[in-house]
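Q: Could you fold this chain for me?
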Amino acid sequence: MFEFYKYHSNGNDFIIIDDRNNKISFDNNFIEKLCSRNFSIGADGLVLLKESKNFDYKMQFFNSDGYEADMCGNALLSFTKFLYDHIEKKKIYNIETKKSFYKTFYKNNKVSFLSKIPTLLIKDFFIDKFNLMLDLFDSGVIHGVIFQKNIGKINLDLIGKEIRNLKQIHQNGLNVNFLEKIDDNFYVRTYEKGVEKETLCCSTGALAAAQKLFLQNEDLKKIDLNFKGGIIIVEREKEFLKLSSKPSFAFQGVFNTFLNS
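A: Sure. Below is the predicted structure, expressed as C-alpha cells.
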C-alpha cells in the first residue's frame, strides 16, 4: 500500500506521491491507470516528489496519458502547496523540473512562481481551415494562442484536437489556447496536449496568453486571466513573469500496486 495526495489548481488536478525512495515502478501504463477517473484515483496528471542534488526538491510530472512532460505550471503550484503542507514549511522553494528549475513562493495560501519570459516562436500562423491566426510560444512547454470572439461557444475538444496535431506548426504537437477580451476582462480556454481534452485551467497556457498581451501593450504590468476553474494572475517582474494562484489540497489516501500488473 502506498500513500498519495490529491491537489488541484483551479480544477486542474493531480495525484502527488513522495517517491524519494524510488519504491514504485511508474511505467506509462501504470500512470495512465492511476489517472483514470473511471477505474482509479483519477487526475489530469501525476506528480512525483524526487530528491534533487542541486535544489530543494525535484518535481517529475506526467500527463494522464502516462508520458512525462517538461513542465506543468499548475502541477508546480500544487507541488509547492504539497511541500508546505506535508514536507517542509518554507516561504521560498527552489524546485528542479525535467529541463529547468523554478523559484516558488508560499504566503497565506497563495503560491507564486517565477518563469522566464515565454519565447515567441511563430507569429501570425494562419490556420486556413478554421480562419484563425495563431502565435506560438514556448512557456516551458509549447503553446499556441489564438485571439477569438465568443470562445465559450467553441467546440474546443474538436477544434483544439485538430490544431494540437498540426505538424506544420510544431512537429511534436502543441497545447491550444483561445483568448478573448470582454470589457476589461480576459478569458482563456485551453486544450491540453497529453490530457487530450480541455482542462479547467492551465498555468503555462496563462503564461503564453499573458505574454501575447504584454507584447501587444507595453503599459500592461499585471493581468488577471479567467479560466473555467478560476483566476490566474500574471505580472511582469524584470526579466521574469510571476504567476500566482491558490492551489488546494483535496484529499489523501492509499493505493495498491496491483494496478501495475
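A (continued): The longest helix spans residues 73-87.
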